[in-house]
UniProtKB/TrEMBL annotation:
InterPro entries: Est1/Ebs1-like, TPR-like_helical_dom_sf. It comes from Parathielavia hyrcaniae. Residues 209-220 have a biased composition (Basic and acidic residues). GO terms for cellular component: telomerase holoenzyme complex. One of its GO terms (molecular function) is telomeric DNA binding. This is Uncharacterized protein.
């Protein structure tokens, strides 16, 4: 991709132009002298682009998030350090808890076989710095799809200590905790969903429509009843979010979605990416659920105070944040490498 704009490239808004150029350089390995200027220019422009786009950034948000994940994974390059670390069998939640007891061993560090390649810091910077900018837009519902897909990936990494060791020291955990607390604060609103409250209280697993139907039928068969003594109603058919369809097929979501989640014969292809108002609360639930699940990993990164309903961070990531300006050369809540 030429650093000099041609007529076809200039049809893109500047933020998208520099984003595409950055990924083109990362993917091709060519014209690397233009990588840092292109990336920095994208990071300078993206916040204003989100502000001007409003709801129109819902779809670009999750596409940008997924693209940055692909860059972090080396676009399928098997020599990528995270890809190598992920090339093992993921333990189940129970096995993880049995094998990794609190304070039983120090945080994992990358082994020599998965040492970071020379070019790896650049996509990691793009991944973290983009997230840092977007995450600071507290209360902006148009950023939820981006936050959702990013935390889906981070949650997946929690099952692979060697892979997480490449990301965790640089990820803005403190900023993530503040973002999650902002979402929780909406729980005082009368419009907050009951599901969000349940996630905060118990951290119960994310249920798809099939699981909820089976649970309600079981309650009815056992003589249970819902509110007012009435039988438990059939669970409404939940439709996947637009970003669910965009994420479908990636290895890091294989354990995320419940069985039958994409059985959506009644949804036309044209409607799969159609936004409806109820998706706002659904996304809040997903993001908070992911935060709770990450915090359950012995509090290595995020922590959750159930009594006060507040997220915090491990002491290693308890840092001062400058919430007015950001130096993209060194993220304010990144922990320096040892």
């Amino acid at each position: 991709m030429s650093p000099t704009s041609n007529p076809q490239q200039t049809r893109l808004p500047p933020a998208e132009l520099y984003f595409v150029r950055t990924h083109g350089i990362l993917f091709s390995g060519k014209q690397e002298e233009h990588l840092e200027p292109s990336m920095d220019r994208f990071l300078e422009l993206i916040d204003n682009r989100i502000s001007r786009s409003t709801r129109r950034w819902l779809e670009p948000g999750y596409h940008i998030g997924i693209s940055n994940i692909c860059a972090l994974l080396g676009y399928g390059d098997e020599s990528n350090p995270i890809a190598q670390a992920l090339n093992v069998t993921r333990p189940s939640d129970t096995e993880s808890q049995d094998q990794l007891m609190p304070d039983s061993e120090p945080p994992a560090t990358p082994s020599p076989s998965v040492s970071a390649s020379k070019q790896f810091p650049s996509p990691r910077k793009l991944f973290n710095a983009t997230y840092d900018v977007v995450c600071r837009r507290f209360g902006d519902r148009n950023t939820l799809p981006f936050l959702h897909v990013t935390l889906v990936f981070i949650h997946h990494l929690t099952f692979f200590p060697e892979a997480m060791a490449h990301v965790a020291p640089h990820f803005p955990w403190k900023l993530t905790a503040l973002m999650l607390n902002t979402l929780i604060s909406s729980a005082s609103s009368p419009n907050v969903s009951q599901a969000l409250a349940r996630f905060l209280e118990s951290g119960e697993p994310f249920q798809g429509w099939k699981e909820k139907q089976e649970e309600n039928k079981k309650n009815n068969n056992e003589g249970g009843a819902g509110a007012g003594g009435e039988p438990w109603p059939d669970a409404p058919r939940k439709r996947p979010l637009p970003e669910d369809f965009a994420l479908r097929g990636f290895p890091f979501v294989e354990e995320y979605y419940p069985d039958g989640w994409f059985v959506t014969e009644e949804i036309d292809d044209d409607d799969k990416y159609f936004e409806v108002l109820s998706m706002i609360e659904e996304r809040k639930e997903r993001v908070v659920w992911l935060g709770r699940r990450i915090a359950e990993k012995e509090g290595k990164w995020l922590r959750f105070d159930k009594e006060n309903r507040r997220f915090g961070v491990h002491p290693d990531y308890e840092v001062e944040l400058d919430l007015e300006s950001v130096d993209y050369g060194e993220l304010p809540d990144a922990v320096p490498e040892a």
